[in-house]
From TrEMBL:
Limits of the Aldehyde oxidase/xanthine dehydrogenase a/b hammerhead domain: 29-152
Coiled-coil boundaries: none
Name listed for the protein in its UniProt record: Xanthine dehydrogenase family protein molybdopterin-binding subunit
Statement: the UniProt record of this protein carries the keyword Oxidoreductase: yes
Lineage top rank: taxon: Bacteria
Location of the region described as Disordered in the Swiss-Prot/TrEMBL record: 1-22
Family matches, as Pfam families: Ald_Xan_dh_C, MoCoBD_1, MoCoBD_2
Source organism of the structure: Streptomyces racemochromogenes
UniProt-listed InterPro entries: Ald_Oxase/Xan_DH_a/b, Ald_Oxase/Xan_DH_a/b_sf, Ald_Oxase/xanthine_DH-like, AldOxase/xan_DH_MoCoBD1, AldOxase/xan_DH_MoCoBD2, AldOxase/xan_DH_Mopterin-bd_sf
Biased segments, Polar residues type: 1-11
Keywords (A to Z) from UniProt: Molybdenum, Oxidoreductase
Length: 800
């Protein structure tokens, strides 16, 4: 499916080599252990009763019949957990007044573990059943009788803020979580007022549903003898969940909770959140004196796991007749769902609003976001969250502007790219881009896509009854979440640094433990490569551990494309500490001054005398014994680093989509797709290319088929995979992938985020391509997803 050009490796080192992922064999053989595979002795099984209605008061709950059913061990409702604190929200919109459900510690509250008074979305958890088997637990749910008093429903953010709209939370007047802004409103409005040309669009960046291959799951195990809890969960952030659950939900000592993330089957942002099931399995394990297990279903996931995107926007671009963009303005209504998820408000505000200028040098920019609560599933991160919505609005505006002034869309983009000499570049909205060289990246994408040949290809397609269109999309994606102090200004209630520990064993084998947590990014391969590259040893000597709060140092987890630009630098810096210690100790072992010690290929030798040397294995053993070391050199090799960068990193790129639209059916086929991305220095190109491919497919899904559809009663109509379309192999074109390399100055590897960056531009590229294919019919915009029926109606003369 992929053509790759411009491949390069790091000469003489491990990093940059396309090594196979060491995790793949166990995954392909079905040997990986997921939460669903964990069966502790005596495990009981939990099922959760979700509300069938979107908004109602609970008048009564009768559990008597369910409690009498075979195998049922316990039926619990909110009354059973009156002393349990609500789940907190830890990313509030920074610098503005915001409103949340309350939390006892004065923090923003999110949701209770079970709802006892008012349900606010379909799937809102009301009761749980624990039984001997999953089937018995599920059967008992149907015997729980709940009486509801229906309340009015609202599912759109803009409608939730209207006068007289149904109110969701007493502590949130008018359903408004926050009104958040960035940029210079006065300057932007003035620039728009005096502009030669202005274009406007009303955009719907539709709500979509994250669909990892593994739904969420949790196993709780309480040890009455020690008072210790163990949680096995499909989580992106075991350390964060340990702290939040112990201190802010359960009120137990931090040292009494261990969180383990086994193999996690994908996340795309969904598994970095606190969910009620995590607390419930722990509480019920203690109550029953045995492990309690819960594994979600696909329909359950769609009605309870955080969903993505969901902005309604009015956007304006101003410019000159000769193609210079002078201003951009955005008003966005962001739908947070019924409750604030753990970090949802920050995703909906800062990640989107500060990113709207993309790769362009725009003198004036302003964004305002109204973040509102509605009777839908909570909003959270989805691969490329915030940045994808920002790129979509900007790239659609650029194409509309190009059409308005009669200029080729590529030329408009070319004239407005931030020039290389202006980096680091302040985009006027709160981001300072670390490094970039946009023009070569842009031109390479046009060249690989054959952009100059498109007129001829369009004519050939028309002869076949097809309409061919080409769409461009550029992007900048803030990644490498950290630094901690900067994130605190954005409203993050916590740190965002990362950590790594390296231990060299007496045999010369190396253990790397990191605070990150893989959800399928091949951390075990890449972090081993980083350590091996720094130490000059074979990656096969390095074992990587993560995902267990008992074994790994404290860390922040995996999100925001941060693993290779946050955790990997921590590994590299720790390896350098090991290397520095071996040079100091080498002076003792070689009996030469320290300045005469050369570290090379994992060992040390005397400069000019390679015969006086110690191998890595010999050094490891010597340090283990510690014989002859001076007092200022401790025995053994065991070092830790906590890495907090000076700023974020900003990968970028250009994508080109070529589509053919069938004139009779409205079916859109993406026939070619070119992506040239820049993630700085990358560790393993084979793994990054896989992430790029997956990211593109994710974006194509939103453009063409994915949508979380709610009816007027708040019922999710697309609640399973028979009604929620996902892209399949047949929907995916051949990819032409290339990359440019612009290292980041903000970490020792020069790395930038890569895992989700290619999700950011595809929706814009595809929509631009379809509009281009239909431009001669007067089509100016079509809202996503571009289903065949929707496009067919446009072809038949519908709304254009």
């Amino acid at each position: 499916m992929t053509t790759v050009t411009g491949e390069s490796t790091t000469a003489g080192g491990v990093l940059g080599q396309p090594l196979d992922s060491r995790e793949d064999p166990q995954l392909l053989r079905g040997e990986a252990v997921y939460v669903a595979d964990i069966d502790l002795p005596g495990t009981a099984h939990m099922a959760i009763l979700g509300s069938p209605v979107a908004h109602a008061r609970i008048l009564s709950i009768d559990t008597a019949e369910a409690e009498r059913l075979p195998g049922v061990l316990k039926v619990a409702t909110a009354a059973d957990f009156a002393d349990v604190m609500p789940l907190p929200c830890i990313w509030i919109p920074g610098g503005v007044e915001s409103h949340f459900p309350p939390h006892p510690y004065g923090l923003p509250g999110a949701r209770p573990v079970l709802t006892g008074d008012t349900v606010r979305h379909v799937g809102d958890p009301i009761a749980v059943v624990v039984a001997e088997t999953p089937r018995q637990a599920a059967a008992a749910l149907t015997a729980v009788r709940v009486e509801y008093e229906p309340l009015p429903v609202v599912t759109r953010a803009d409608e939730a803020l209207a006068e007289g709209a149904p109110q969701l939370h007493e502590a949130v007047p008018g359903n408004l979580n926050a009104y958040w802004t960035c940029g210079d409103k006065e300057r932007t409005d003035a620039a728009i007022d005096r502009a030669e040309v202005t274009v406007e669009l009303d955009l719907v960046n539709q709500r979509t549903i994250n669909s990892p291959i593994e739904p969420r799951g949790a196993v709780g195990d309480y040890n009455a003898a020690t008072g210790e809890y163990t949680l096995y969960a499909s989580t992106q952030g075991p350390h964060n969940h340990r702290f939040l659950l112990s201190a802010l939900v359960l009120g137990i000592p931090f040292n009494k909770l261990r969180v383990i993330a086994p193999t996690v089957g994908g996340s795309f942002g969904t598994k970095g959140y606190l969910y009620p099931d995590m607390a419930l399995v722990l509480l019920l394990s203690k109550a029953l004196g045995r492990p309690v297990k819960w594994v979600d279903t696909r329909t359950g996931l769609m009605n309870s796991t955080v969903q993505g995107r969901d902005h309604r926007q009015h956007v304006t671009l101003a410019g000159t007749r000769d193609g210079r963009i002078t201003a951009v303005r955005c008003t966005s209504y962001a739908n947070l769902g019924a409750y604030p998820s753990t970090i949802g408000p920050g995703v909906a505000t800062a990640l989107m609003g500060r990113s709207i200028t993309g790769m362009y040098e725009i003198p004036a920019a302003f964004c305002e976001v109204y973040a509102a609560f509605t009777n839908t599933v909570s909003l959270g991160a989805q691969r490329g969250s915030g940045r994808a919505e920002a790129a979509f609005l900007m790239e659609r505006l650029v194409d509309r502007y190009a059409a308005e002034i009669g200029m080729d869309p590529a030329e408009v983009r070319r004239r407005n790219l931030v020039p290389k000499e202006k980096f680091p570049y302040d985009n006027g909205l709160g981001w300072t881009y670390d490094s970039g060289n946009y023009a070569p990246n842009f031109e390479r994408a046009l060249e690989l896509a054959g952009y100059a040949d498109m007129p001829a290809r369009k004519a050939a397609a028309r002869a076949r009854g097809k309409r061919l269109g080409v769409g461009l999309a550029t992007y900048v994606a803030i990644c490498g979440v950290g630094p901690s102090t900067r994130m605190s200004k954005e409203g993050m209630l916590g740190g965002t640094w990362e950590s790594a520990n390296i231990r060299v064993h007496p045999t010369g084998e190396v253990t790397v433990t990191v605070g990150s947590a893989s959800t399928g990014q091949s951390h075990g391969t890449v972090f081993a490569m980083v350590a091996a590259d720094e130490l000059g040893i074979d990656p096969a000597q390095v074992q990587v551990y993560e995902g267990d709060t008992l074994k790994a140092p404290y860390g922040q987890g995996t999100y925001g494309s941060r693993s290779y630009s946050m955790a990997a630098p921590a590994v590299a810096l720790t390896a350098r500490k090991i290397k520095a210690k071996l040079i100091r100790a080498g002076a003792v072992f070689l009996n030469v001054p320290e300045e005469k010690v050369v570290y090379e290929n994992g060992g040390v030798h005397e400069a000019g005398n390679p015969e006086n040397a110690k191998t890595f294995a010999e050094l490891a053993m010597a340090m283990w014994y510690g014989w002859g070391l001076p007092p200022d050199i401790e025995p053994a090799l065991d070092e830790t680093t906590h890495f907090d960068p000076p700023d974020f990193n900003y990968p970028f790129g250009t994508h080109v989509a070529v589509v053919e639209v069938d004139e009779l059916t409205g079916e859109t086929e993406v026939v070619d797709y070119t992506a040239v991305d820049d993630a700085g220095n990358i560790g393993n190109p084979k793994i990054v290319h896989g992430q790029i491919e997956g990211s593109i497919v994710h974006g194509l899904g939103q453009a063409l088929m994915e949508a979380a559809e709610y009816d007027e009663n708040g019922i999710l109509l697309s609640a399973d995979l028979t009604r929620y379309a996902l892209p399949r192999a047949a929907d995916v074109p051949f990819f032409t992938l290339d990359r440019t390399v612009t290292p980041s100055p903000h970490n020792p590897l020069g790395a930038k985020g890569a895992g989700e960056i290619a999700t950011v531009p595809p929706a814009a590229a595809v929509v631009n391509a379809v509009v281009d294919a239909l431009a001669d019919l007067g089509v100016r915009h079509i809202d996503m997803p571009l289903t065949p029926e929707k496009v067919w109606r446009v072809l038949e003369g519908g709304d254009r």
